[in-house]
Amino acid sequence: MVPVIVFFVFLEILPGVFSQTGPPADTICKPYRATIFWDTYTEEYGSFFYQRILTVRLIDEMPDNSVIRLKVVGTAFSRSLHFTKDHSNTSWVERIAEIETGYSSNHTISYEFILDEIFDILNMNMAEEFFWVVNECSVIEEKKVREALKRKKTFVAVTGQIDKPVSNVWTSIATDKNHTLKLNYKGHTNLDEFLNLACKDSRLNCDTDMYWDGNRCHRCSYICSKVPSEYCRNECPYKEFCDSLNPAETKKATENL
Question: Which residues are registered as beta bridge partners of 168?
Answer without folding.
Answer: none
